[in-house]
Structures are given as C-alpha cells and as structure tokens.
Design goal:
The complex is a heterodimer of chains A (396) and B (342).
Chain A: H1 2-23, H2 34-64, H3 68-100, H4 103-110, E1 115-116, H5 117-120, H6 129-162, E2 166-169, H7 173-176, E3 178-182, H8 189-220, H9 227-235, H10 241-268, E4 281-283, E5 300-301, E6 310-312, H11 336-340, H12 347-382, H13 390-393
Parallel strand pairs in A: 4-6
Antiparallel strand pairs in A: 1-5, 2-3
Helix pairs in contact in A: 1-3, 2-3, 2-9, 3-9, 3-10, 6-8, 6-10, 6-12, 8-12, 9-10, 10-12
Chain B: H1 8-32, H2 41-61, H3 65-106, H4 117-150, E1 153-158, E2 161-165, H5 173-218, H6 224-252, H7 276-290, H8 293-328
Antiparallel strand pairs in B: 1-2
Helix pairs in contact in B: 1-2, 1-3, 2-3, 2-5, 3-6, 4-5, 4-6, 4-8, 5-6, 5-8, 6-8
The chains are: A mainly alpha (396), B mainly alpha (342).
C-alpha cells in the first residue's frame, strides 16, 4: 500500500522536473537567468541527496542496531523528503512558467477584451509575467515622479506670483510721487496651501511606488531562492518541518503571488477612469524629458471607454494646460502679463490626478498585500505552521 | 447502482449533481449577457471542477482512496464556492432591482433611466464632486479678489520722507479662515474623486475579473483565504459600496438643504481714503456676508457632513462588510490598510 502511495509523488516529481526545463526561458530578470535557475536546481538536488543520505544512514543504523524506532523514523522522513521535493518541484515549475509565460498569451488564453497599453507598446505583449510586473511598477513610479514635477512647478509659480507687487499711479503721482502698491496674485496663498498638501500626498504615492519597485528588485535579486533548498532540508527534519513550510509560503507569496498581483493591477488600473462621470483626467507635463511618462498605465489597447486614461496635454494645448516648463520659471519677466503666463495647474484637475495616482500607488497595493498575506498564511498553515505576514501590508 | 459497503457514493452523486447544476447556472449567466458581466464565472468554477475530476481519475489510476477522500472535500468546497457565486449574483440583482427605487423614494429622489445601484451611486458622486468643485472655485475666486484688495496700500515719498497707508489690510483677517475652508473643501473634493474612481474600477472589473479570480482561488485549499478576500473586496465595492452611498446620502438629509452655497465676493477697496471709516464699514459688511448663517451652514453641511463625513462612513461600513463577509466565506483578513484612503 505504501508503495502505491509513493507512486503519485514520484510520478508528479518526474513530470514536473521534466516540464520545468521545457518551460524555462531566459529573460532579463535575474531569477529567470539560466545560471541562477540551474544553481537553484543544483542546490535543491544537493539538499535532497543529502537528506536522503541522512535518512539512508538512519535506516542502516536502525537495521544494524535493530531499532524499530529508527526504522520507523527513516520511513516517515523519507515520505516527508519526497513531499518536500514535490512541493519544491511544483514551485520551480511555476517559477519557470512565469519566466516564459507572456502577458499577450494571458490575454489570449483568458479571452480578455483589452490589453494594458504599457504591455501593448512593449512588443505587443511579449513581456513575461516577471518583466510585466516590473514594467507596471516602473511606470507607476514614473508617473508619480512626473506628478511631483508638475506640483513643484505649480508651487514655484504660486510663490513667484504671490510675491509679485505692482505700483500703480495714484492719479496725482507725478506731483506727489504717491503710488498704490498692489499684489495682484496675493490671494493665491490659498492655492499654495492646497498644492502643498497635494505635494504631500504625491510624495506618499511616489514613496509607495518606489518602495514596491525596490522590493521587486530585491525579490528578483534571488535571495529568496536560497529558501527552496533550505526548505527541503528543514521540512524533512522533525521539529523544523513547520519552519520549512513557513519558508516555502514566504517564497511562494513573494516570488509567485506578488508579481502576479502587480500584473493584475496593470490590467485593472485603467478601470479607475473607465466610467468616471466628471470628465477627463488631464496632466500638464512640466519637464520636457519626463513629459507624461507612465501615464499609459491608465490606458488600454483598445480603450475600454471614451473617458479612460490620462490626457497628457502639452503646454498651450488648451486652457487647462497653459503655463511653462519648470526650467522656465525664472524667465517669467516682470510684467503682470508675464506672471499670468506662468499659469499653474487648475486645482480641481490637480486634485483629480493626485487622487488617481494615490489610489494606484497605495489603495491597490494595500489590496495586493491583503491577498498576499491571506495566501501566505493559508499556505503556511497548509504546510504545517501559520506564518504571520501581516506586517508586510503595513509597509504600504 | 449503489455499491454495498461504500456509503460515500450517494453523497458523491449529490455533490456531482449539485456541481453540475451550479456550472449550468453559471453557463446561463454567461448566456444572459447581463450587467454586471458574469462572463468568467463559469470558467472560475469549471477549471477547479476539471482539475478535481482529473485528480479523481488519477486516484483510481494510482489506487489511492486517501486522495479520493481529500478530493471529495475539495468538491464540496467547489460546491460551496458555486453557492457563494449564485448568492452574489442574486444579491446584486435584488439590489439593482429594488434597492435603488426604495432608496430613491426614501430620499425623495427620482433616478430616471438608471438601472442599477452602481449607476445611481456614480450619478450621486458626480453631483457631489460638481458641488465640491464649484464651492472650491468660489473660495478661490473670493481669495484671489480678497488677496488683491487687501494688499492695496498707498505709498508716498519725497526725498526719503513720506508715509504709507494700508487701509485695506484688515481684510487679510478673513484669509486664514477662507484658506482653512478651502483646504477642507479640497480634501472633500479629493474624497469624492476617490469614490468615483473606486466605483469606476468596481464597475469595470469587480464582476469580470476580481470576483472570478477570487472564486477560482477559493476552490483550492492553499488559496482559499486569498480567494475569499478577493470575492469580498470585489463584491463589497461593486454591490455594497454603491448601496451604502445611496443609503447614507438619501436617508440622512430630510428637509435640510442639500446643496452648497456660493461664496460672496468683496468689492473694491480704496486705500487712498484717509479716513478709515469707509474701509472699516466695508470690512464689517463683507464679514457679515461671509459669515452669514445660511451661507456658512449650507457650505459646512455640504462639505463636512454630506461629503467628508459620509465618505468616511461609507468606507467604514463597506470595509466592515468586506471583513465580515470574508470571514463568512472562510478568509480572515485585515482591511485596516484600505481605510487609510479616507
């Protein structure tokens, strides 16, 4: 009976081991590099062989000393070592699949009606899932930074306009040398306060997106790959089995679920603007180099609706987006007309854009981490011990 | 024919029958082309059923009764997930069919040509956003004029000796309060935009992507908790959130004026008047206009109660529901991080 039970893990193990290599494709992500993948497989193999050797020694010892306890322990641990090997094989198979599965294929397989523009523009969906998650978070960070640029320009423009004073002739000024001083934009100190607050929100959004970017870079760096061979050993050692299960759960959550959630975010982020009833969301770029970089994360190909996406308006395009570039702030001149030409963003529009970026950079990741934590906890419980990953969510 | 000595067969038959019924229902939903979009519901339930069926066959191939027992449990979970899916669809239909008209009647509001709670809530949020934006614009205009007029001063100088007269500067006293009011209104406006974006996201993808993924994940043991979280979040923001928005806004107001008021604008100030009396009377008069009870009450009620307070309340109720519902379908989640947007 025990032999029959063993057939399943062996069969699954061999199938997955062969498929892992078939599914493998080299990519720019470190985790997906052939050498990294091979060395992980090698380490897992060494860990498995070492573990089986230890169990074999225990079995031999059990036979030599006629110790039924040792024999029973060896048999039980052999099954656990097999189970660990199957789990690790499943993970490696999933990992290699994510290195080769493309977002374009995802769209085809699921029959989705549209693809995020950032993926359509990058080889028509040729990104693997790992590259796709990086691309999304890079674009999110880019638009957060463009937004900060835009707000910085607005603050500079308000500061210049508020401090601007004119001296008007008071009628008899030629004789009395009297004049009336006026600060025509003095009332904009209110807008300055509001824009300062918006900059605070924009900074939080930027920090959140950049935190996620570096987290992803760290994950892709491959440090957690060491968990896999370690997990094979630890899961096969009594007393440490639960700890090994926790390591596997952490690995799966960060290496498999987190990138998938980011790709899911890329697919659903355009939904924020798909059916808003209060008009378009416009962005006024204030830097010729960054322009509206990253704004494509809210667009799909084909567009999901007429209001979907951010309208990137270059200066002078219409009344929403007059004004200058950040580098031209000091060229404003001294007349009131020149000061008018600075034309900061309209406050309601700036608020709308900020809220949109904040939701993408903070609200969606908060949902991601709720799901990741729930998944990690359940998986670790399934593998033996409940890992408390709730702190991860607090990073957002 | 029931096999003697194997009591699990009748139960298994029941499970298979029920799962097939659920799949058939999901297929019907797919064919119905309804709003919301249930296209992927059948796929979310079909894939796990297929996986379990293949594993069940494998259990015979490898002669593993233990695996069969596990699979029977898993099939039960697919069945439960199907029941959850049908409950979501049914609840959504009830909310769209009845809740909108009931809530409309309670708030003495007619929603012509609006078929769903989502449409009604989106229209409501757009109205609130328009109101908050016009209030903010009014404050901006008032502040611009006040800043310009309050800055007026006469400057007279001859050979380094002279005087300056700033009769209009007392108007600066109002600017701090106006800025505080505008600051609050800008946050209220941000709240309404955020609600609008969340509704838009839920409308586009809750039933078409988020909930189907949740259903799919809920069918497997290791991802059951994550699936439950996604189902609860998707359903919470698509069905409960719009209903809560309509409920809190329609039931709260009664006969109280619901709209904001326009901000009075000050006239020109003459800094050359050597007597301060005219500037003083202008100052007092504008102050009275600005702090007039009806004006301030309407603006404060609209901005602070109808927009700010209700947006927080709506979110708290929705998140409480999400947490409770997730728990009900087998997922313990901490939604406090989502409350940070309020």
């Amino acid at each position: 009976m025990a032999n029959q039970q063993l057939r399943i893990p062996i069969f699954v193990l061999l199938s997955l081991a062969s498929l892992s290599q078939l599914a493998f494709a080299s990519g720019s992500i470190f985790t997906c590099e052939q050498a990294q993948f091979d060395s992980t497989m090698q380490l897992c193999g060494i860990a498995a062989v070492a573990m089986f050797a230890l169990i074999a020694l225990a079995y031999i010892g059990g036979e030599a000393f006629q110790s039924p306890r040792m024999l029973m322990w060896s048999k039980a641990e052999a099954i656990q070592a097999f189970a660990s090997l199957v789990i690790v094989s499943v993970i490696l198979f999933s990992l290699s699949s994510m290195c080769s599965f493309q977002v374009g294929e995802l769209k085809t397989v699921l029959g989705l009606p549209a693809m995020p523009k950032i993926y359509a523009d990058a080889g028509g969906g040729a990104d693997t899932l790992y590259n796709a998650s990086s691309r999304y978070i890079e674009n999110l960070a880019a638009i957060s930074l463009s937004n900060i640029n835009s707000l910085r320009y607005d603050l500079g423009a308000y500061e210049r306009r508020i401090s601007y004073n004119t001296f008007e002739c008071a009628g008899d000024c030629l004789f009395s040398l009297a004049s009336v001083s006026v600060a025509p934009f003095g009332g904009e100190s209110m807008k300055l306060a509001i824009t300062n607050n918006l900059l605070g929100i924009a900074t939080v959004s930027y920090l959140s997106s950049i935190f996620q970017y570096f987290t992803l870079v760290y994950i892709y760096g491959g440090i957690f790959m060491l968990f896999l061979p370690l997990a094979i050993v630890l899961r096969s050692v009594p007393f440490m089995r639960h700890f090994g299960g926790s390591l596997i759960a952490i690995f799966v959550s960060l290496y498999l679920i987190y990138p998938i959630m980011l790709v899911a975010d890329a697919y659903i982020a355009p939904g924020f603007t798909a059916s808003i009833g209060s008009g378009e969301v416009a962005m006024c770029p204030r830097d010729a180099n960054t322009y509206c970089k990253g704004s494509a994360i809210f667009s799909t190909v084909p567009p999901v609706s007429a209001t979907a996406g951010i309208t990137c308006k270059w200066r002078g395009q219409d009344d929403t987006c007059k004004g200058k570039l950040e580098s031209e702030l000091d060229e404003a001149g001294y007349s009131e007309a020149k000061m008018n030409g600075l034309f900061p963003s309209q406050i309601p529009n700036a608020i709308k854009l900020n809220v949109l970026i904040f939701l993408s950079a903070v609200f969606l990741p908060a949902i991601n981490f709720i799901v990741i934590v729930a998944f990690g906890r359940e998986l670790s419980r399934f593998l033996g011990e409940e890992a408390d990953m709730s702190r991860l969510g607090q990073m957002i | 024919m029931m096999k003697q000595g194997n009591p699990s067969n009748p139960a298994l038959r029941l499970l298979f029958f029920a799962s097939l019924a659920i799949l058939a229902s999901a297929g019907t939903l797919y064919a119905a082309n309804a709003n919301p979009d249930y296209t992927y519901f059948w796929l979310a339930l079909g894939i796990p059923t297929g996986v379990v069926a293949i594993a069940y066959m494998a259990s015979y191939a490898f002669n593993s009764p233990a695996l069969r027992a596990v699979l029977q449990d898993e099939l039960l979970q697919i069945l439960a997930t199907g029941a959850v899916a049908l409950t979501l669809v049914g609840t959504q239909a009830v909310v769209d069919e009845y809740a909108v008209s009931v809530l409309g009647a309670a708030g003495n509001v007619d929603y012509p040509d609006i078929a769903s709670a989502m449409d009604a809530a989106s229209a409501k949020i757009a109205t609130l956003a328009g109101g908050a934006a016009s209030t903010l614009t009014g404050m901006e205009d008032a502040s611009n004029i006040m800043g310009r007029e309050a800055s007026r001063g006469v400057f007279c100088n001859f050979m380094g000796v002279g005087f300056s007269l700033n009769n209009c500067s007392p108007f600066n006293a109002y600017r701090g309060s106006l800025t505080a009011g505008a600051f609050t209104t800008s946050i209220a406006l941000a709240d309404t935009y955020a609600q609008g974006f969340i509704l838009s996201l839920a409308r586009a993808y809750a039933f078409s992507i988020i909930i189907p993924i949740g259903l799919l994940l809920r069918c497997f043991k290791a991802s059951r908790s994550a699936g439950g979280a996604l189902i609860a979040i998707g359903f919470g923001f698509y069905t409960v959130y719009p209903a809560v928005i309509l409920t809190t806004d329609n039931l709260l107001h009664g006969s109280t004026p619901k709209d904001s008021a326009s901000i009075p604008l000050m006239g020109k100030c003459d800094p050359k008047d050597p007597s301060v009396s005219s500037a003083l009377s202008q100052f007092t008069s504008y102050g009275e206009q600005l702090t007039q009870y009806e004006t301030t009450k309407n603006i404060a009620y609209f901005v602070m109660v109808r927009v700010l307070f209700l947006s927080i309340l709506n979110l708290i109720i929705t998140l409480s529901f999400i947490r409770a519902f997730a728990q009900m379908i087998g997922s313990e989640i901490d939604v406090s991080s989502l409350a940070r947007i309020s």
